[in-house]
Amino acid sequence: MKRLLLCILAVLVLLTSCQTASKNIEPDENGLFTSYVFDTSEDSGKLTARYLALKAVYIGSQDKINAGDCTVYTSPEGLVMMVDCSNRNSFDEIDQQLQMMGVTDIDIFVMSHPHADHIGCLAQLARKYPIHQVYKNNQVYDSVTYREAMDYILENNIPCTVLYEGDSFMFGEQVKVDVFNPPTGLGEWANQNTASSNNCSLALKLTYGDSSFWTSGDLYMDGELRVVEKYGDAIDSDVMKMNHHGYETSNNKNFIAAISPEVVVGMHESITSQTVAMMYSLKYKALTFYNCQDGAVRVSTPGDGTYDVQCQMLREKTFYGEPAANCHYTISNAADMKAAE
Ligand SMILES: [Zn+2]
User: Fold this and answer.
1) CA within 20 to 30 Å of 88's CA: 37, 127, 128, 333, which one?
2) What is the pLDDT of residue 56?
3) pLDDT at 12 (0 to 100)
4) What separation in Å is there between the alpha carbon of 28 and the centre of ligand 1?
5) 88-124 pLDDT, tens per residue?
6) First vs last Cα of the chain: how many Å apart?
7) Would you call 98 helix, strand, or coil by DSSP?
8) How far is the CA of 245 from the centre of ligand 1 (A)?
């Protein structure tokens, strides 16, 4: 009798776990899963990252402005932290996506570094969505975009804190954010070239219980390798954004190995390097997404090392892995998976 009860119990457990795994998700009339990506009704108690899908903008017949980065994190208690806000022409797209999430304020805004494809619409954004705290690196950049952003921050008395490696801050009560780059002691960088600015990108690891997210702007390989050499496995994270829009200037194999991500997102209007895509997906076996093919991507976790991923678009090219039919993926305990390897 006891045995029979145990069998019934086992079957019930199996049935319930099957039910949770195969969520009933249907595309909208355009074949998109937009509402599932931006629905925040199940975010409570979870740390969630939404990697917004932004397009390149063409000004006149020739000038193309590349889509930059914009990631929106929400804390278990519903605070909003945005890392970067793409270029000045991305505001309408960002605005639409924030509206779908029901965002009214931005509790924390992080400027990964001062390039125009990362802080381009900061002032526009702040006019509509009050920003309560800004974190930035220490580079004083010589550009109109940077000056406009800083003018707005100063004129509106938005608290603004410069971060270096070794610093940390709390995103709500339960999510700790540790800073791994840039290094201290460099002062205000005199050198304004692209590589120097990119190498000064803030590198952040968000930790919530057993779950972790990594983001480090446009860090180049020499910056990546400095971080790996200094911090080793401490940078290990389950979810990450590719550095520098997935270009081969960045995403060094030793850096990827040290992070050893389960989920990676490339943010750009195209796949910038198939070599980088293959490295993440084939060599390091990470679920690999690109905004240009998968649309916006939501990754959420209750803090136990499990993740729920929902993409907006079903991608056509599958050279780096078959997409799930409903663009929905679940990742069981990432720490256990790593231990089993
Ligand atoms: Zn960039």
Assistant:
1) 37
2) 78
3) 47
4) 32
5) 899 999 999 999 999 999 999 999 999 999 999 999 9
6) 39
7) helix
8) 6
pTM for this one?
0.90
315 within domain boundaries: yes
Pairing of strands 160-162, 63-65: unpaired
Residues with CB under 5 Å of ion ligand 1 are 117, 218
CATH number at residue 228: 3.60.15.10
Q: ∠212-88-129 over CA atoms, to 5°?
A: 65
68 in any annotated domain: yes
Tally of domains in the chain: 1
pLDDT at 17: 37
Q: Which parts of the chain have pLDDT scores under 50?
A: 11-22, 188, 341
- Residue 134: CB atoms within 10 A of its CB come to 22
Tell me how far the alpha carbon of residue 65 lies from the centroid of ligand 1, in angstroms. Answer: 11
pLDDT of residue 72: 98
User: Helix H segments across the chain?
Assistant: 2-21, 34-38, 91-101, 116-119, 122-128, 144-155, 194-199, 221-231, 253-259, 274-278, 291-294, 334-340
Rounded Cα distance, 166 and 209, in Å: 20
Identify whether 18 is part of a domain.
Answer: no
Q: How far is the CA of 292 from the centre of ligand 1 (A)?
A: 15
Structure tokens at 124: 């526009």
Enclosing domain of residue 331: 39-340
